[in-house]
Write a structure and sequence with these properties.
By secondary structure, the chain is an alpha+beta fold. 21% of the residues lie in helices and 40% in strands.
Length: 385
């Protein structure tokens, strides 16, 4: 899923571009001067510990590459249970690669409890800087059990974390219903199927270029391709038609027209992509932002999405995926009142999406719990909610 977490991927790509510059020296981080945690006085979280591990800096030309590998422990000092946290890491606000984020979705932290957050990112800043601190770590947002939110929301983390929490509630409800109706053998079968889907799910890397900047040197498109669409019955927004210019493994200037068929105004839509290669194999290309933050789509109206974007698909470095066909579907909707829609589990199953889309962070967590600790631990966890 292209979301907050992918900002770290973008940073890594930008830093990788400096690899041709000779490395001058590598140094471990000084805990006293390297990283500053900036938490407001009214923050619902406090910092307990920060272990810098193998974090280090490397000078390359006129740039400083900061490799952070940190284990951070935070405490919930507020009165509400915490369901998600997003941290903003800033080395240089105006330098490409100078900003990243780390999200911890699908957590359940009671007041007074502590919890870990793992930070593994690469940041870039000029070698000469007036700021004595290499990196500033701050809260972009905290999501609570009642879907209340705290934080500046510079990265739109409220939307992302609300989306993850809605998915988590949906999937926990599903697995609890399986336990109730089919017992522990049925729940075990569901977990085995989930682990199999996760292992076998075909994956694509997606490189996104905004405002029509092509990521390819190809001058002319091969052809213009029409989108096919999967219609999800409970979706408040429906795709109507769409097309894109195709150049090899790149889709340029896509146009997708959508209709708001709900009774509420919409301010954000996310589009899921399925890409078919020349051998007929289908891959999920993730979900990409289909609308800018200034979207306002009233009930019954249409809007055009994704019109200033280019997307390049591959299965890893040097393995481009030539595009033979594209299928789109609405994967996320945010209403003007801040409420978020996610597809029902039944809709994912009936539309064949369940086998190709990435499972929610909560389903991954529950499946991993089953894999590590067994069925009894999973049943105990589900009964907490």
């Amino acid at each position: 899923m292209l979301s907050i977490c992918n900002k770290a991927v973008l940073v890594a790509a930008l830093v990788a571009g400096t690899g041709a510059l000779p490395a001058q020296d590598t140094n471990s981080l000084d805990p006293n001067t390297s990283v500053k945690f900036k938490l407001p006085g009214d923050s619902p979280l406090s910092l307990l510990t920060a272990n810098y591990g193998e974090s280090h800096t490397t000078a390359r030309g006129g740039a400083l590459v900061i490799d952070l590998h940190m284990a951070v422990t935070l405490r919930n000092t507020g009165p509400r249970r915490v369901r998600g946290v997003t941290l903003l890491l800033l080395a240089q606000d105006f330098t490409p690669g100078g900003k990243a984020s780390v999200a911890a979705p699908s957590i359940d932290v009671a007041p007074g409890d502590a919890f870990p957050v793992r930070i593994d990112v690469q940041l870039l800043r000029p070698l000469q800087s007036n700021n004595p601190q290499l990196v500033e770590v701050s809260l972009d947002g905290v999501l609570f059990e009642d879907l209340g939110f705290y934080g500046p929301n510079r990265l739109n983390s409220r939307r992302s974390m609300t989306f993850w929490e809605m998915e988590a509630q949906r999937d926990r409800k599903y697995f609890k219903q399986v336990l109730q109706s089919r017992g522990q053998p049925g729940l075990q079968q569901e977990m085995l199927e989930s682990l199999t889907r996760q292992a076998e799910r075909p994956r694509l890397d997606v490189q996104l270029a905004p405002k029509g900047r092509s990521t390819s040197a190809v001058a002319r498109p091969d052809h213009v391709a029409q989108f096919a669409f999967l219609q999800i019955p409970d979706s408040p927004v429906s795709p109507v038609d769409g097309w894109a210019e195709i150049a090899g493994n790149e889709a340029r200037a896509p146009r997708i027209n959508v209709l708001n068929r709900s009774s509420r105004a919409v301010r954000y839509v996310e589009i899921g992509w399925l890409v078919k290669d020349r051998e007929g194999r289908e891959f999920l290309a993730g979900s990409v932002p289909g609308s800018e933050d200034d979207l306002f789509l009233p009930s019954g109206q249409t809007a055009r999405l994704l019109q200033d974007t280019s997307l390049k698909f591959s299965r890893g470095p040097g393995r481009p995926v030539p595009i033979q066909g594209m299928t789109g579907f609405v994967s996320q909707v945010e209403f003007a009142d801040g409420k978020v829609w996610v597809p029902k589990r039944e809709s994912l199953e009936s539309s064949r999406l369940l086998r190709v889309i990435a499972p929610s962070p909560e389903e991954q967590r529950l499946a991993d719990l089953y894999r590590r600790k067994g069925l009894a631990a999973l049943v105990e966890e589900l009964r907490k909610f």
